[in-house]
Amino acid sequence: MSIATVEAPARGTPSALTDPRLLAWRHLFVSGAADVLRRYRAAWADPTLDDAARAVAAVGVVDPHPRVALLPLPTEGEFAELVRVTGIDAAAEAVLAVAWWAAVEPQVAIVCGCVHDDAGRRWPSLGLLAHVFAGVGVTVPLTVGATHPLVRRGLLDVVVDPDAPIRLPTTTVAAIAGQRPAPPAPGAVAPRVAAAATRVAALLDAGVPVLVRCEVPDDRAPVRDAVAAQLGIAPAPGVRPPAVARLLLHLRHELPAVLLEPGDAPPDGTVLALGGADEPGPPGWHLVELAAPPLAVAEQVWRRALRQAGVAVNPDELADLVGRLPLAEPTIAAVVGRARVAAAVDGRTATARDVSAALRSQPRHDPGGLARRLPPTTTLDDLVLPPATLAAVRDVVAHARHSPAAHDRLRLTGRRGRAVIALFHGPSGTGKTAAAEAVAAAIDRDLWTVDLARVVTKWLGETQRNLDTVLRDAAAAGAVLLFDEADGLFGKRGDVTDARDRYANLEIDHLLQRIEVHAGVVVLTSNRPSALDEAFARRIRLAVRFDLPDHGERERIWRRHLPHVDTAAVAREELSGATIRAAALAATVSAIAAGTDVRAEHLHAAVRRELEKSRRPPTARRPR
What we know:
Organism: Micromonospora thermarum
Region (Disordered): 354-373
Number of helices: 25
Mean pLDDT: 84
Domain AAA+ ATPase: 418-550
Protein name: AAA family ATPase
Number of strands: 12
InterPro entries: AAA+_ATPase, ATPase_AAA_core, P-loop_NTPase
């Protein structure tokens, strides 16, 4: 990575302009330059020489032997500390000091132009510095390569041309000037965050790089700032080149900390990384785990924030808000605040639905192409199901709402088994997908339907990565995840006869392990539950059987779609709910095309066409 350089003269702080060691180097450079210029003048003023002889005489005006003793350089000040920390020699120190003075003081830049004998070249170069400082016994190199201490320490970019201008990186200018960014002001943080920050600060002081694994993504920045405040160092504004990051840390200018995205590794030079709960620890790094607020604490924070905002919620709504997403304490208050403001704009008081909408906008709500987001349009009241089936669906809703509280009450620790995995199985068209929508609507969450054609690929390892991504994003969004026709993904493992079989079985093993630690609600639908792998079937918490509707249920479904039409005759046909919906739509289209209301002939024609799709003859006798 290239280092940004100073393109225009900068201005130093008053303390930097009076730094004793910098002033000593300024004096040495100006004195040496003045001596060179005097000897130039003496050579050109000799009346016994012609122009050519004067030019030749001026070439050797610098005596390679020291004419002036190197001053005792002061040992106090920011520049002296920089030299001590980096361990650079006098020649490297001279390069830094003069380049810095040329950048911050125009008169020094003018001196450079005079030595160059070109007013347009107001900058130091390695050739110029070697020329000037030879008179004080300092041998400045004519090139600075990648192995030179100035480059290895991140103080200077590579310089291969002795005549090229020396431009100091902005970080070096600030380091020489002693310009330290102000560390974050100590602020109020949750006790769990403060305790983690204290431990991390102690580890960093001991020279150990630290990875903080945060169960709550919103904890990453507060932990970083709390650590920086305890150390008295500002967090780095971005990823620096490794040498620069180490230098600024040693000078106590910046704390090289980074907030990791999923799958990223800490960049070289970083000493503090903050990632998710599943972030792998690099070798040699110390791991610090930061759990989400305990459920009881989160409930108290939610109650207080809702009460202050004047939002009334019932116990079920509160349980859903508390258990939906692990959030940091300040984030909870911010979510409720956004809900209150949004409702106030509409001239009304915020409700639990407003808070839920604000909560859905808090995390990243993007399936990323691996799933489709379906806003739930079906409610539990819209479902036409046998009482036992409807009760089982309501059990799924209860588990989605209260499972976190049940784990807390039973003191069940760990991440395994927290996912609410429900299997909806039965013939096609019996309402399995509609029931999944109703579950999502009951707990006021989005429904993501996984696109198996995108998740499952032929490339080795790609299916596992895709599943990791969709599960991670769904957990971060608090969405209900729907795997339609799940036996295509979670089918039984077969005998291994070749490499493809082995990799297919490995993929299923990975899916089983990954979904077991998922924190959220997963609904699977299948027409063939017996095709599911037995190991996965054991991980299913709830299974709901959906059967074809009986005569009374079919009449209710027909009346729901066509409330003002006599559907008693067509209700005798043994159709699924999805087929009835399709027939009602087809009959309505035919009626609109004919310019009439829906009539019996439209209904029977639509039913006959639906039966022909499945190659079934009508079973109910049509009345004469």
